[in-house]
Amino acid sequence: MSTLHTEEMTLNMGPQHPSTHGVLRFVVRADGEVMREAIPDVGYLHRSIEKIAEKVGYHGFMPYTDRVDYVCAMFTNQGWGMACEKLAHIEVPHRGEYCRVIAAEFNRIASHLLSVGAMAMDIGAVTPFTHAIREREMINDLIEELCGARLTFNYMRIGGVAWDLPPGWREKALAYLDHFDPILEEYNALISWNKIYIERLANVGVITAEEAVNYNLVGPNLRACGIKWDIRKDMPYSVYPEFEFDVPIGDGHWGKLGDSMDRYVVRIREMAESSKILRQALSKIPPGPVLAKVARNFKPPAGECQIRLESGRGDMGWYVVSDGTGYPWRVHVRTGSFAAMGIIQKLSAGLMIADLVTLIASLDVIAPEIDR
Questions:
Q1: What CATH number corresponds to the domain at position 164?
Q2: How many domains are there within the chain?
Q3: 30 in a structural domain
Q4: 153 in a domain, yes or no?
Q5: How many other CB atoms are there within 10 angstroms of residue 194's CB atom?
Q6: What DSSP letter does each residue of 95-131 carry, written as one string?
Q7: Which element (helix H / strand E) includes 268?
Q8: Which of 103, 165, 307, 336 has the greatest CB tally within 10 Å of its CB?
Q9: Does 204 map to a domain?
Q10: Is beta strand 9-13 parallel, antiparallel or unpaired with respect to 303-311?
Q11: Where in the sequence is the domain holding 349, given as residue range(s)?
Q12: Tens-place pLDDT, residues 304-327
């Protein structure tokens, strides 16, 4: 009687696979439908953006920061501005800080809407994506009225923001939030508590709290493991201490703590918290200028600085070294997507190939944020 011999298959997922949310590649070793491992192969979008900063100067680099994370570009604008301001000891006007928070939190909601909508579509539910993208487009309409752009904003400046809120914009923004809060509950009824959707996400890609810390996960991916760490609360910056909001964490309600469902639900709950922040900021925004006086030929004193802020994908760090000229000597940005890619190889072992799509979507990685 002959013995059946099988061998592993090596498959390419990407670099143009529609479920990788950008130009990513995974080398998958599989035995039938079960993966032995999925190895990330990054670098397809590397543009030397940190080196570009050294060539275009401090003011000139602001539009390039949009390209670090084009889904959450307000945060990359803000991070660069905060680093430059720390180097030169510049104080942003109070109203300017409020404008930054308002723009950033709207961008956080837009980013999470794209994440949860695309995640549902990747798994096979097309309709929820159209609902999520509709709301995101409404937010883009508001942001376009604020700064003239819908994706790569270039809204913030060293010392504040480029433009104040337009006349009547505050009322439009509050009216949108009145519309959005019930829509979020409608979206939950449509997909979040759907039995099939929960079964596809629960207990898939479970990350323990210890693993999350060891792999340097940040943002919703970290908080989904039950760790309550948010830069806005734990290392406060800008005017976030003036607002009341909660930090959602995973609770393992649908399966094991730290699974794909927890990562999804944390983002849903974060949108509601961003809405709370926006209502407070829009209600009590102070009068005054939005931009400090900064020399056009900006030359911060020689030195180095590091700043951190809570981006849509978590703890983002900017490290800048100045040599006293109009061009930074060294720039480095630490992003959440790059850290998240490191744990995929470990989590993929034993998963079905179809579950790799779920895992990637639940981590909400953005390709240009990985490669830079």
A1: 1.10.645.10
A2: 1
A3: no
A4: yes
A5: 16
A6: HHHHHHHHHHHHHHHHHHHHHHHHHHHHHT--HHHHH
A7: helix 260-283
A8: 336
A9: yes
A10: unpaired
A11: 46-371
A12: 999 999 999 999 999 999 999 999
